[in-house]
Design a protein that fits this description.
Blueprint: E1 2-3, E2 9-14, E3 19-24, E4 31-35, E5 49-57, E6 60-67, E7 77-82, E8 87-92, E9 104-105, E10 118-119, H1 126-130
């Protein structure tokens, strides 16, 4: 989620529908939705693309995505640029590597019950989530 530099619009990604939402802050019933295209072409099936990061810079909105079943492979992460009408591929990596040291998160009644900080972890599948082992995930800033 991010706010435009003029503070008129809130942008967020609906991870389920794979849409970018633009919400007018002064009139929150004024909502525009834009389908986020697959930045990987044939390298990643549409169903596996996970757009989730959003950052506004000037008139452009940047969306970060991963290909869920190929995070560690040569597909990596992608960043798309949206100028209000057109999408373009801004950057794509060969593999998803964090450039910073993994952060930690402090939770009351933390994940493992120890109240100790937990390190950031990679994506987990639904079975692990159901079993209650959800671990913190980092957000992207670019």
């Amino acid at each position: 989620m991010d706010i435009s530099e003029d503070e008129k619009y809130l942008y967020t990604v609906n991870m389920y529908t794979k849409e970018l939402y633009k919400i007018e802050i002064g009139n929150p019933t004024n909502i525009s939705k834009y389908a986020i295209p697959n930045p990987y072409d044939s390298e990643c099936d549409d169903a596996m693309v996970r757009p989730w990061a959003v950052k506004v810079k000037g008139e452009n909105v940047f969306i970060g995505s991963v290909c869920e079943n190929k995070i560690e492979s040569d597909v990596g992460a992608a960043i798309q640029k949206f100028n209000g009408s057109d999408w373009s591929l801004f950057a794509k990596t060969g593999s998803l590597q964090y450039n910073k040291e993994p952060g930690v998160i402090n939770l009351v009644d933390d994940i493992d019950g120890s109240d100790e900080p937990e390190p950031w972890k990679n994506w987990q599948d639904l079975e692990e989530k159901i079993q209650g082992t959800v671990e913190p995930k980092p957000d992207i800033q670019y």
